Amino acid sequence: MAESLGKELSAALTNITSLIIKTESKSERTTLTKQQAKIAGQLQVFVDKVVDAALPEYKAATKALNAANAEAKAAKKELDKIAATIEKFAAAIDKLLALAVKVATAQL
Amino acid sequence: MNTPNPLSARWCTLLTLAVLLGTLAGCALTAQQKAAVSQFSGSAAMLGDVTSSELIAMRDDTVKMTIERLLLGGKSKDPNLGDQTSLDRGFDVERVETVSDATRALAAYGKSLAALVDDTQSTELQAASNEFVASLGRVPEVKNQLSDKQMETIGTVIQEVGGLWIEWKRKQAVTTIVSESQKAVEHICDLLIRDFDPDEGWVAKQLQVVEDPLMAEATNRLYGGETYNDRKIALEAFRLAHGSRMRRTEVLKRVTDSATAMKKANGALAQAVKNSTWSFQDIQDFAQKARSLQRAVKIIVTE
Questions:
Q1: Global pTM?
Q2: Digit-coded pLDDT (tens) for A76-85
Q3: How close B1 gets to chain A, by Cα (Å)?
Q4: In this model, does residue B143 exceed pLDDT 80?
Q5: pLDDT for A32-59, tens place per residue?
């Protein structure tokens, strides 16, 4: 029902606009332009109602997908961590080595 | 009796670990699965980015067309239409932001998947294992007991074990994320298919509400225009309305086609990462539709 109202208003707007473009008489065009504005105004009200109902749907779907995106970013960080862990082991060995040298020097 | 060498024992442990993880090699994404994810993610990013920028362009056009209509015809002839206090009527910030948040989330989804399958870890892993082996070589006890060849093998094992571990984690992550986001992606695609439909959707109707009254005022000015400048002003308004109409007919259709293809490709992708029996066709079809959308937008913007 609501969908067909939108379709009819849109079709009426298309038709009256075509008529305005073809009409040579200034007074007729003035009358048609006023009628066209009314139809366009009604179509605007129709669109407003449809959009008011649609926006919460977008918000909910976006929230759900953003949660998955955050999970993907966290997973990527996990993958990148493996090389960093090996590097940390290398750094730890170097530190232990330096400590061993210090201890050996102190004992002399 | 031979005393077990602790270094040789560690060496054996590493090898055992490598063999164990080697059995996990089958749990990594195949090259074909990676290609499917890459192609899908690139197309998703393209659809999301192009649609977001088109929504902003529609808002800009709305402001320009409303200004032009008010310049040509004076005060709005209906109180529900945009006027001097609501130049962006129909594509106000909240509407554009809410819908483009969703399309940007689609783009971000594509980019996240691409980042997950792109192998940026191999080089880092190689550098890290080289560093590890170099550090190990600086320990005198190790240096005395292991040959250069053995040290090199340790480095290779670390790289391979790390690589297999990464590939296993990569597959787990991609499979989880694709299946967990499947419903949300499909929902956003459904919303785009419904709302961007050039015949039935509200986006097309909203553009028409702004375009058609401008066409009427421009026509009135053209008929009454006696000078070159009068007609030039009228034709400038027609050009604006024409640009918007191109978006309404060409871009909206391609967004709808791409979203339809993405929904199908998303199902194929979920199958692709779960098992090896799947069709690449849906993902290729989506890629082709996303490219068509991008090309149409380029043509309209160039005009």
A1: 0.83
A2: 888 888 777 8
A3: 32
A4: no
A5: 999 999 999 999 999 999 999 999 999 9
Task: Indicate if the pLDDT at residue B212 is higher than 60.
Answer: yes
Answer whether B215 sits within 8 Å of A20, measured CB to CB: yes
**Residues B98-123, mean pLDDT to the nearest whole number:** 90
How far is B139 from chain A, CA to nearest CA, in Å?
Answer: 7
CB–CB of B181 and A17 under 8 A?
A: no
Domain boundaries, chain B: 30-118+177-302
Residue B222 in contact with partner chain A when CB distance is under 8 A: no
The beta-carbon neighbor of B170 closest among A59, A61, A79 is A79
| Closest chain A C-alpha to B75 CA, distance in angstroms | 11
pLDDT surpasses 50 at B203: yes
Cβ–Cβ gap A33/B217 under 8 Å: yes
N- to C-terminal Cα distance for chain B? Answer: 88
B110/chain A closest Cα distance in angstroms: 9
Amino acid in position B183: K
Query: Least CB-CB distance to A41: which of B73, B79, B217?
Result: B79
ipTM for the complex shown: 0.80
Q: Please give the single-letter amino acid code of residue B185.
A: V
Residues of A in contact with B168 (CB under 8 A): none
Cβ-count burial of B26 within 10 angstroms (0-12 exposed, 13-18 middle, 19+ buried)?
Answer: exposed
- Boundaries of every domain in chain A: 2-80
The C-alpha atoms of residue B83 and residue B80 are separated, in whole angstroms, by 9
pLDDT at residue B1, as a whole number = 44
Which positions ≥6 away from A11 have C-beta within 8 Å? Answer: none
Burial classification of residue B62, based on how many CB atoms lie within 10 Å of its CB (0-12 exposed, 13-18 middle, 19 or more buried): buried
User: Mean of the per-residue pLDDT values for chain B?
Assistant: 87
CB pairs under 8 A between A and B: 214
